[in-house]
Amino acid sequence: MKLLAKPWTFSATLHVLLIVMVVFPIVIISTMILQVYKRDLLQQTTERSLQTLHAVTYSAQQEISKIEYVTAAVGVDRDILSIATDLHHADEGSRYAYINALGLALSRYTYSMSSQLLAIHFFYKDGGVYSFQQNLSTDEKDVRAMDWYRRTLQQTDNVQFLGLQRTMLFGQTIPFAMSAAIAPSAYHTLSDVEMVCFTLNQEAFDKIFRQQPYDKSAFVIVTAEGQVVAASSNWEAASVNPARLAQINSAREGYFVDKASAHDMLVTYAPVGNTGWNIVHEIPYSELTANYNRIYKIVLLATSSVIAVFLIISFYLVKGLTRPIHVLVRKMSLVMEGDLNAKIGTSGIAEMATLGRTFNHMLDQIKLLIRQREEEEQMKRKAEFAALQSQINPHFLINTLNAIKLMALISKVDNIRNMTNALMRLVSSSFNRGGILTRFSDEIENLKHYLYIMEIRYGHKFEVEWRIDPQAESKYLLKLLLQPVLENSIVHGMAGRESQGKIVIEARIQEGSLYIVIADNGEGMTEEQHTKFRTKSSPHTFSGMGFANVHHRIQLHHGEDYGLTLAANEPEGTKVTMKIPLIYKDKDEELL
């Protein structure tokens, strides 16, 4: 279930579909064709075997009919019966003449079967028996007591084909011989013959099998009891076993495959008239299926070859289809990781090439959009910075010049010269060439010029304490970050004080950042001013630059982890903490 729940790859799905829709049908169709061919082969062989058996059966019945005909002809021939009667009553002197006469009379009927005939026995009504050619080895009384003898007497003038009977002749080594008998009816009143019995060998039936073409199949005629009447030369006696005999006797004719023997055999059988015999044809199953096995090997080889070729072709086909998809998946993973140069080839199948071109075009468009976005952001930052910086320079310059004008009226020339000199340095720093960064030590010098101007403006109402870490002086920061904050402390913090004010400017490096603190002991900020700062709506100061604007400018260039923090300075006043990253080289401006 977990295998089904997990999504399959495209290649695995294609392989499964190809196997299910092509390989399985080919195997199933090939198997069905072989099975149908095997069934038809078995059926055709069985039909031919039964046809052969019918022909053999006909020949066997002809031989039996010939025996019955000869037996009937002899049993109803008055001359033969009279001669046999006279022979029975003749003395020793005339007996030889009757024997010759009887032999001559019998030869008219037995000439065609002379090689088969073993003996003819004439049983007389008052006892005694005459044996033609060979004498009985069994006592006459025992013979007359046998079932066939009594059964024949009950059906006079009807030939009884007795089939195989135990041999009752002297000098015979065969245990069984063919027998037929007839009891002349009372119509023959002048005859003393009660029974005529023929005894023959099985040569005629053996000839039937010798006429069949020689192959590895075998024929045998068996009785219902399993006695072998005749058999072909390649027949094995062990094949007539009780299990096979029971199956043969279970139906009039038919076939079955005998798997109980050493070698599987196709057995067909058919009855021989009403004799109770069956003619059995045995065909080795290996011979029967030899052609099938050849066809099976050919079909198996052809099927395997077709499947192998198909799998090889399908493997390369699936690989050709899925390789671009796998490449596309890998490239998309790289794109997800930020690599926009992960392009794919545009060769191969037309659809895949189109997909590759579309993917590459998409990446180009993404890079173009990103570049446009970066350019827009850069232009936006420059515009914002220029706007923020422009808020500082003109207003500050105008206000300072106004102060110089007033001082010129009430002060001496030296003060005007010094203040003008400080203004020139400060303005020069604001409008100087170069980038947006300045060294922290240069920014300190600018602050000192600015403080000189502000001290003259406000009449030395405050003093400044510097706490600068020497390591911080070599670092870089954005221009004019500190002047607006310092201006805010002077203008708003010290404006209303009667006593001397104090401003502390501190710089230190801590936890990988530059911290600059400007603290005053002025009036401090109200909660409303704190709220406006947090919402970036702080009112403009003398320079036009509020805390919120400085904070926004820092975050615009360095990110939201940096900026201003406002807090109360105990016991009075305001403390502004500025956190900016450590910038070691002026060229880092390019990153901003």
Automatic annotation (TrEMBL):
Superkingdom assignment: Bacteria
Transmembrane segments: 12-34, 298-318
Gene3D superfamilies: 1.10.287.130, Histidine kinase-like ATPase, C-terminal domain (3.30.565.10), PAS domain (3.30.450.20)
HAMP domain mapped to chain residues: 319-371
Pfam families xrefs: HAMP, HATPase_c, His_kinase
The keyword Transmembrane is assigned to this record: yes
Catalytic activity from the UniProt record: ATP + protein L-histidine = ADP + protein N-phospho-L-histidine
PROSITE patterns linked to this entry: HAMP (PS50885), HIS_KIN (PS50109)
Major localization class: membrane
SUPFAM superfamilies: ATPase domain of HSP90 chaperone/DNA topoisomerase II/histidine kinase, HAMP domain-like
Topology relative to the membrane: Multi-pass membrane protein
GO molecular function term, any single one: protein histidine kinase activity
UniProt keyword annotation of Oxidoreductase present: no
Entries under InterPro entries matching the protein: Bact_2-comp_sensor_kinase, HAMP_dom, HATPase_C_sf, HATPase_dom, His_kinase_dom, Sig_transdc_His_kin_internal
Subcellular location: Cell membrane
Histidine kinase domain ranges (all copies): 478-584
EC number: 2.7.13.3
Record's keyword terms, sorted: ATP-binding, Cell membrane, Kinase, Membrane, Nucleotide-binding, Phosphoprotein, Transferase, Transmembrane, Transmembrane helix, Two-component regulatory system
Protein name according to UniProt: histidine kinase
Source organism of the structure: Paenibacillus aceris
